[in-house]
Amino acid sequence: MAFNTLMFVSFFLIVLIGYYAVPKRFKWVFLLFASYFFYLYASLKFAFFILITTISSYYAAIWIGKMHEKENNIPKEIDSKVRKVQKQSYKKKRKRILVLLLVLNFGILLFLKYFNFASDNLNALFGLLDLNIKSPTLNLILPLGISFYTFQTMSYVIDVYWGKVEAEKNFGKVALFVSFFPQIIEGPIGRYKDLAPQLYQERGCNYRDLKFGIQLMAWGYIKKMVIADRVAIIADYVFANYLNVSGFGVAFGVFMYAIQDYTDFSGAIDIARGCAKAMGIDMAENFRRPYFSKTVPEFWRRWHMSLGAWMKDYVFYPFSLSKGMRNLSKFAKKHFGKHIGRTLPIAIGNFLVFFLVGVWHGANWNYIVWGIFYGTLIAVSGMLKPIYDWLNKTLRIKTESSFFHLFQILRTFWITCIGCIIFRADGLIEAWQMFLKSFRFIDFPNGIRHELLSFGLDKSNYVLLLVALIVLFIIDVLQEKGSVRERIESKKIYIRWALYMAAFLAIILFGIYGPGYSQSQFVYMQF
């Protein structure tokens, strides 16, 4: 039940009406039933995996919570050595429970995503070595949203382990936190302390929340159906036929895919957050105008923010602040200087994070290399920062000037376009060929107009796309300066309703759908 279907819109309207119709104390129960209906509608067999995650996490959190209680209730009057031994015992039990849970759930995720990928690569290796060995492949199906709900649920149990939140005793409430339907497909990845209390809250209908939620959904549908699905036609053609396209055409197709990736994913998140907001629930922000970033690290602080925050809190900090990394830092300071000693653990931590982000996206060498590309770039740039500062000073570059900021934005966007080639190409060889060809800007076709029209859009669609991109750019600029919704709210009622009607008509009249059209699946549904 993808967001861009009439089935989902009908489902959401029924849920919204039902949510405000049921008594306040039963709202969370209604949401739970609605979420499981949504999930089971996709496939009954998917439910087995989400139930394993829910049940195992529920009991693991309860047991870890009990270990915390027992440790805190050790009598103070007993011998200090005995107290220390008992505390260590409870800590070991907590850690054992957590490790078993993580192995189980991440093991399921890795098995379903990577078993066949590993088998195929082993078979290729055996073939090169001329070994008569065959690794089996299985008919595996990746359950809907497994990457998102696994990460979200594991963060809940880790937070219980760290003592940041208390274990929830009500199994149904944990099940709702795991399966909340707006975010199950593409996120954002929620934190228990932020999301869960809102899911269980007894609330009445709030017109402001309802209005802002529907506004956000409408903007998400415009991004997806008017822009993303339109540029996808160009990107799909160019990536499939890059050998027969000019250098200019390849560069244009890559640019279109960068736009598609942003508008498709952020559009889905806007729809998801809008659904939740209409029910008075605020979900985590996942995008903050990433293509306005001046550096690659800033880009990743603005793009897929909930995944970045998850990796930072549960991978980067535990790893970079570990005893091994502290020892490495001391060694590097002694032999290579303070800067290297300080930044080396950060660089290694960033590399690990982005390698895992690549793995998270799926069983494909492109995703792994894409993660290594960003991990290496961010790690090396952090290590070389003193050299960049020296060059700026030596060349007397005015780093605070608007011109330099524009240069930084364009440079960062160009780097992300390279990442898009790696991410989207059919294979690594194809990615390399496209990368080289995209630099041949002098390779213009005999007729640019003819080539552009061969990509699948006619002249009127190009004009419409240009107008839509200008509107997107203006709104993103306004969002950088403040809330657009608040700006709209301050306008007179006839202006507000004119904007609402314009948005609604844009979706109806200019959305990519109709007879013979199969709606485009959201890019991140596959992850």
Quick recap of the structure?
The chain is 74% helix and 0% strand. It is globular, with a radius of gyration of 25 Å.
Number of helices: 22
What is the structural class?
mainly alpha
Helix content: over 70%
Multimeric organization: single chain
Overall 3D shape: globular
Write down the Rg. Answer: 25 Å
The unreliable regions are 514-518
SSE order in H/E notation?
HHHHHHHHHHHHHHHHHHHHHH
> Termini distance?
16 Å
- Work out the number of β strands: 0
Major sheet details = none
Mean pLDDT score: 90
Strand content: under 5%
Q: What does this 3D model show about the protein?
A:
The protein has 527 residues and is mostly helical. The protein is built from 22 helices and no strands. Helix 3 (46-72) packs antiparallel against helix 4 (80-128) and helix 4 runs antiparallel to helix 5 (146-162). The radius of gyration is 25 Å and the shape is globular.
